[in-house]
Amino acid sequence: MLNLLYTCGQCKDLIFDSCTSVVIDSTLTPGTVYYWFLEDGRGKIFKGNSTPDGYYRLWINLNQVPKGLFDKATGPLKLTFALDAKGEQPVQVPMGYDTYDCLTLNFA
Fold first, then answer.
1. Which residues contact 75 (CB under 8 A, 6 or more apart)?
2. CA torsion sign, 87 to 88 to 94 to 99?
């Protein structure tokens, strides 16, 4: 089967308002539990899981991360996904016609 998605093999930069939940609009499969891993600039990793809704939106709510993590002062966060809690089954993130290994979250 022809794969129309281009695999970028890199991170896609996204910008969010500080102190808000992060909503990822992609075509991750609704109803599937995805484990997410957020890595800050010092290498500290925060973990959780979310399930995309019927509109292909995956939410990482403020109550799932330490207070102040989603803030400009924290700096960029690297976000990756997997199908397992250990991250041994990584998932690429489809967005539009491209797929990415990770997302870089920046806060304004």
1. 40, 41
2. positive
| pLDDT reading at 18 higher than 90 | no
Is 60 exceeded by the pLDDT of residue 8? no
CB 18 within 8 A of CB 68: no
How far is the C-alpha of 47 from the C-alpha of 5, rounded, in Å? 27
Rg (CA), the chain: 13
* Phi, psi for 95 (deg, rounded to 5): -140, 115
Closest alpha carbon to 81 in 67, 69, 99, 61: 99
Predicted structure pTM score: 0.86
Contact by Cβ (8 Å): 101, 11: yes
pLDDT in tens, 51-97: 999 999 999 988 899 988 888 888 999 999 999 999 999 999 998 88
